[in-house]
Amino acid sequence: MNFAYTIKDLRDRAGLSQQEVADNVGIARATYVKIESDAREPKLDEIRAISRFYEVDTADLIDDTIKVGEPMEVYTREVVEPSIVPRDIDPKVNPDKLRQVLLYILGKVGAKPNVGETVLYKLLYFIDMDYYEKNGRSITGLTYIRNHYGPSPTIDFRKVVEDMEHHHELDIVETKYFNNTQKKYLPSAMPDLEMLSAAEVKHIDEELARLSDKTASELSEYSHYDTPWLVAKKGGAIDYRSVFYRTSLTAVTEPDDEL
Q1: How many degrees, rounded to 5, is the angle at CA 129 between CA 98 and CA 241?
Q2: C-alpha to C-alpha distance for 51 and 53, rounded to whole angstroms
Q3: CA 98 to CA 191: how far, in whole Å?
Q4: How confident is the model at residue 51 (pLDDT cuts 50, 70, 90)?
Q5: pLDDT digits (tens, 9 = 90+) for 104-122
Q6: What is the full DSSP assignment across 78-114?
Q7: Among 107, 112, 125, residue whose Cα is nearest residue 164
Q8: How many angstroms separate the CA atoms of 152 and 157, rounded?
Q9: Which of 20-29, 88-97, 158-167 has the lowest mean pLDDT?
Q10: b/e code 131-142 from CB counts within 10 Å (16+ = b)
Q11: pTM value surpassing 0.90
Q12: Burial group, residue 48, by CB count within 10 angstroms (0-12, 13-18, 19+)
């Protein structure tokens, strides 16, 4: 059994054409055809290139010690899809998703005495900003503006709340909280968690556990240390991308280790 027969058998078992082998080996198809048909002696560099392509030992290929006629496992490079999701530089609110987030949050903490409108605003802000710092995306897509008492969502929030109230998904009531009148949002429906990923639900739960027991004053003061709020213009939109310049006071990710 000669070299020409061996490389033809290797090619047949790999299901390749002569052109494909020639291209991968780096020689002209006409040259490869002559080698495979035993009409031309192969050069040493050609033998080495063919052995590298089929991942066999060069000496075995020259000495005809490769077993033929048996199935050959063809090496296929594994294609790994990139796991990094591109950063969303301009988040847009998804009203349906925002409805489910609100129902979920309110179902969890809406009945707490301290959770009125101001606390809800700050919880939403930190849920979105912290998730953006970790993943480059906002969960609700809400835009927040810089107010004197901290960040608050824009009119998109109000539109969704009014629609939910109209469809009896939540009730808005006023109660007394110490010496203040407090506006509370109470859910009247169950959330559809199919619109949220497991990672998003986990993140919301962690944020609520960390922040939902704080008062409106405490959360407002905390937000005043947050870089996105600090660098925004008064009354202007807060840029999500500013989370990447947070200090240790509000950052939720560890800085990369220095190499």
Answers
A1: 120
A2: 5
A3: 10
A4: confident
A5: 999 999 999 999 999 999 9
A6: --PPP-PPPP-SS----HHHHHHHHHHHHHHHTTSTT
A7: 107
A8: 9
A9: 88-97
A10: bbbebbbbbbbb
A11: no
A12: middle
Separation of alpha carbons 95 and 128, rounded Å: 15
- Copy the structure tokens of residue 62: 């020259």
Higher-pLDDT residue of 218, 1: 218
| 130, 137 Cβ separation under 8 angstroms | no
C-alpha Rg value of the chain to the nearest Å:
32
Contacts by 54-61, CB closer than 8 A, 24 or more apart: 54/10, 54/14, 56/10, 61/3, 61/6, 61/7
What pLDDT score was predicted for residue 91?
86
For 3-63, CATH number?
Answer: 1.10.260.40
Domain with CATH 1.10.260.40 in the chain: 3-63
* Residues in contact with 233: Cβ distance below 8 Å, sequence separation at least 6, in sequence order: 146
User: What one-character-per-residue DSSP string does 118-138 give?
Assistant: HHHHHHHHHHHHHHHHHHS--
Under a CB-based contact definition with an 8 Å cutoff, are residues 104 and 127 in contact? no
Is 213 or 5 the better-scoring residue by pLDDT?
Answer: 213
Rounded Cα distance, 230 and 63, in Å:
75
Q: Hey, what long-range contacts does 71-76 have (CB within 8 A, 24 or more apart)?
A: 71/13, 72/10, 72/13, 72/14, 74/13, 74/14, 74/15
Mean pLDDT, range 214-239, rounded to an integer: 94
pLDDT (tens digit per residue) in 54-67? 888 877 777 666 55
For residue 99, the number of C-alpha atoms closer than 13 Å in the C-beta half-sphere is 20
Average pLDDT, the chain: 87
Specify burial of residue 145 (Cβ count, 10 A radius: 0-12, 13-18, 19+).
middle
